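Renewal narrative, Specific Aim 1. Our central claim is that a sequence can be written position by position from structural information alone. The example that follows is taken directly from our test logs and has not been curated for this report. It begins with the structure tokens describing the chain, in the order in which they were read.
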């Protein structure tokens, strides 16, 4: 629950590491599993973190940000997956802007843009660092290799 326990308060929300873990899961798990995991963790984090009004929108948005990534391939950090942080970030920014527009106002939604933009940059950077480290450790190869032995 890196969204709940590692966060930096900002305006009407916070910067967290949860999205970077969603990106990682999306590159390791089949899409339906990554989307379900992202939806549950996104909603739970909002409820636990005191932002319950965002739980349902977050569940939908977090599931959507899994869609650009692929778990196919031998590595987590492929050129394709690295580039998919851009549309995933776009989904985050646009969807939360719409949610904040509905919940707050134009000014509230605009204030949220900066935080959401910062969130997407931090998420992409953390994802790239973790994915690179996991690939160097041959995480995906070891995970898939161990599954074949059972």
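The sequence written for that structure reads:
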């Amino acid at each position: 629950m890196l969204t709940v326990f590692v966060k930096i308060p900002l305006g009407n929300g916070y910067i967290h590491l949860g999205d970077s873990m969603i990106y990682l899961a999306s590159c390791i798990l089949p899409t339906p599993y990554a989307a379900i995991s992202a939806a549950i963790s996104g909603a739970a984090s909002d409820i636990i973190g005191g932002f319950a009004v965002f739980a349902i929108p977050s569940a939908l948005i977090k599931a959507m940000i899994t869609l650009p990534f692929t778990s196919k391939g031998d590595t987590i950090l492929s050129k394709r997956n690295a580039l998919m942080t851009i549309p995933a970030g776009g989904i985050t920014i646009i969807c939360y802007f719409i949610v904040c527009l509905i919940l707050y106002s134009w000014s509230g939604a605009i204030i949220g843009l900066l935080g959401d933009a910062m969130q997407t940059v931090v998420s992409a950077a953390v994802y790239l660092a973790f994915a690179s480290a996991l690939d160097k450790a041959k995480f995906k190869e070891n995970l898939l290799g161990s599954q074949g032995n059972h």
